[in-house]
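Researcher: Structure for this, please.
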Amino acid sequence: MTPLRIRSFRLIFIGRTLSTVGDAVVPAALAIAVTRATGSAGALATVLACAMIPKVALLPIGGVIADRFDARRVARLTDLVQCLCQVLIGFELLYGRPQLAVIAAASAVDGAAAAFAMPTRSPLVAGTVDGPARQRANALLASAVSLARLVGPALAGALIYTLGAGSAFLLDAASFLVSAAMLTMVRVRRTPIPARSLLADLAEGWSEVRSRSWYWSSLVAHSIWNGAAAVLATIGPLIATRRLGGDGSWVAILEAGALGLTAGSLLAGRARPRRPVLVGNLALAAYAAPLLLLAAAAPVPVVVAGYALAMAGLGFLNPVWETVVQQRIPEQVLARVVSYDWLLSLAAMPVGYALTPVAADAWGPAAPLVIAAVLVAGACLATAAVPGVRRVGFEPVAPARVEQGEQVEPVR
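Model: Predicted structure, token format:
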């Protein structure tokens, strides 16, 4: 059965898709708006840091809140908070002279809300879809994200040059409002947890991570992958502009990546490998290809093909990984475990951004790409040596299924 036949998931899918499209238009609009208003790259970095720091810092707490309370209600509240933040930034850009302090403050609140929203995504799927349909549900959501990345920049450009950069933020605000409305009509199964201290809840979530070799070893590889992606995002445009024919080559590379991501997500909805985590991690190792090809300034079609293949690996891994995690992690700790996943992934990216210019200045622009390629290929391939990675499959070990909306007391 297709998961879209399940009413609650269908509403979640519609809301998530719309909010993802809204989010996809914001980065370009923010960069153009802040640069126009201030003429400073440092100002844009300040705004981005204001959004990233609270997001990373509050993620583990967001996981606790999502486990303690109804993930649906937490997600709906964060949608409303993010809606208000985007409205504030939108009006700030459309009317009057934009003030950097206001945009930075709204971005910080938006980042904090995102830290509470992100851990709710997996519990929302796990609480509405069961059985083989869960993998297809995750693949559908991943495909929606991929398509949003594909159309987002073009939509952002159309809005910026017709209605102004502020309109992109108002569109994002509207998407959050629709998502909140969808969540109002959703019923999500949840497993209440006993009341304890915040530190005890955080420790329990971390204990669940440490106790599964397949999980923490994969997180290390995934974190290094994100650091490598930051390296490519930092130095890739420079090499494309100087050695591959200009800005158009970089746009072609990114568009090919979005197509590859979509193709990988669609494949993940149908494939059921016996060792899904192992296959997914090995697919991630393909990210070494575009890094090495860019370092060698290979012909543009070759780099485009390499990046499409690498992103197809990511598109395949994401739904497969989320499905295995939702099946293997008890529902009462799922949000906390997922929050540590997000924490390690996001924390690695600023490291990549910071170290890439240092390595490029010391050894040349190709050096950080080669180093990142060796690290990401080595880390992803090394997970094959972990017995848990080789053994874990799709077979669920979670509690027995209950009807949607019914609350289940945790097993003690």
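Researcher: Any notable elements?
Model: Confidence is low (pLDDT under 50) at residues 396-412. Residues 241 and 247 are 5 Å apart (CA to CA).
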